[in-house]
């Protein structure tokens, strides 16, 4: 078209203005057309993603509420595991015949080697999976016979690896209870001993934490998780201690934050450093998916078994 217009201009059949006009018309036509191609490609790609998303949403949950399950009533928050066995895959049992109880208001510690099945036990308590056999009861109600929402509402967890969203510290903490006010979030920050850290930040609680919280240290992330648990204020508390070594100052901060919280609740603590749980009401020792010992720190030391060996090993490490 441009060539024809150029020829016409040369032959004096069109003015130079007409040539410019035709050029403009063509631009107006082709730019939107190529944009349409871009939009089409985007829509195609998004549709493919949406399909995958719906695929996930439509996956039936293996753990579901039974018809007319009641809401769980938690007072005082006693937990009992009764001959619980579990395996992720059929050929590999992870937990075998686990039985122990936590009285309401007690602090019970779980210790055992890495891979012994401690975190798995917590997943069962939350009913992310159902045990292969055995029952878990909270205040004499089997957790399979109450609604999932009420069960999960009554347990607060400080997980081994806390998941943070790429948002401000404030919103990440508020995730513990989305209806909490700013003042309540600040109280939780103080209770979790995060106030000193927050006061050093330019933007305070409005600082963003980065993708999955990568701008925070391990100890800071764990204290954010504690602040969440404080906000949630559930009757049962689970603390899965991170293995990543905190320095002793950060460890003390995390521990004292946790102790203050545990004092008022039933608490299940998974501990790697035994020095952190010497004052627990009961210590349950897991080995190879089984409970091998349980009792207080003194009882277990005098029994001279797995726990005593672990304790000696850690004492030597510290020396
Ligand atoms: N989703 C899963 N699918 C299959 N196997 C799993 C899964 N999660 C854990 N396991 C296996 O179950 C065993 C127990 O894992 P678990 O996370 O309970 O250990 P742990 O006692 O918490 O260890 P750590 O002290 O390192 O946190 C491990 O051998 C692990 O490989
Ligand atoms: Mg674990």
Tell me the strand percentage band: 15-25%
The number of strands is 10
CATH class of the largest domain: Alpha Beta
Structural class: alpha/beta
CATH hierarchy: architecture of the largest domain = 3-Layer(aba) Sandwich
Sheet with most strands: strand arrangement = 6-7-8-3-9-10
Distance, first to last CA: 88 Å
Give every kind of bound small molecule, once each: adenosine-5'-triphosphate, magnesium ion
> What's the overall geometry?
elongated
Unreliable stretches covering 5 or more consecutive residues = none
Rg calc: 30 Å
Number of H/I helices: 11
**Total number of distinct structural domains:** 2
Give the biggest beta sheet: 6 strands, mixed
What is the helix fraction of residues, given as a range?
A: 40-55%
Fold-level CATH name of the largest domain: Rossmann fold
Indicate the mean pLDDT: 89
Order of helices and strands: HHEEEHEEHEHHHHEHEEEHH
CATH superfamily of the largest domain: P-loop containing nucleotide triphosphate hydrolases
Give the topology.
Blueprint: H1 2-10, H2 16-58, E1 79-89, E2 92-102, E3 107-112, H3 118-125, E4 133-138, E5 141-142, H4 148-153, E6 155-158, H5 169-174, H6 182-191, H7 195-200, H8 218-232, E7 236-240, H9 248-262, E8 266-270, E9 282-287, E10 290-295, H10 297-303, H11 306-318
Parallel strand pairs: 3-8, 3-9, 6-7, 7-8
Antiparallel strand pairs: 1-2, 1-4, 4-5, 9-10
Helix pairs in contact: 1-2, 6-8, 8-9, 10-11
């Amino acid at each position: 078209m441009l060539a024809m217009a150029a020829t016409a201009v040369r032959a004096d059949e069109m003015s130079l203005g007409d040539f410019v006009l035709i050029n403009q018309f063509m631009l107006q036509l082709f730019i939107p057309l190529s944009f349409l191609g871009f939009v089409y490609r985007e829509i195609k790609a998004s549709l493919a993603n949406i399909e995958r998303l719906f695929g996930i949403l439509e996956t039936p949950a293996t753990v579901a509420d039974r018809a007319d399950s009641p809401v769980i009533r938690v007072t005082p928050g006693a937990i009992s595991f009764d001959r619980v066995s579990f395996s992720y895959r059929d050929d590999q049992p992870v937990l075998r015949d686990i039985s122990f109880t936590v009285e309401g208001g007690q602090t019970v510690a779980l210790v055992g080697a890495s891979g012994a099945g401690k975190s798995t036990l917590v997943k069962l308590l939350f009913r992310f999976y159902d045990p292969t056999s055995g029952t878990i009861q909270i205040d004499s109600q089997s957790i399979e016979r109450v609604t999932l929402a009420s069960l999960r509402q009554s347990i607060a967890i400080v997980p081994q690896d806390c998941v943070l969203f790429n948002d401000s510290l404030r919103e990440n903490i508020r995730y513990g209870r989305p209806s909490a006010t700013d003042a309540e979030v600040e109280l939780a920050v103080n209770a979790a001993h995060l106030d000193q850290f927050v006061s050093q930040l330019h933007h305070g609680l409005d600082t963003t934490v980065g993708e999955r919280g990568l701008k925070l240290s391990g100890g800071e992330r764990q204290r954010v998780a504690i602040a969440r648990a404080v906000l949630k204020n559930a009757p049962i508390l689970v603390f899965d201690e991170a293995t990543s070594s905190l320095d002793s100052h950060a460890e003390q901060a995390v521990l004292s934050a946790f102790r203050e919280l545990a004092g008022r609740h039933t608490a299940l603590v998974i501990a790697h450093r035994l020095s952190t749980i010497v004052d627990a009401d009961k210590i349950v020792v897991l080995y190879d998916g089984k409970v091998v010992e349980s009792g207080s720190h003194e009882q277990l030391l005098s029994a001279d078994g797995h726990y005593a060996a672990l304790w000696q090993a850690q004492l030597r490490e510290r020396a």
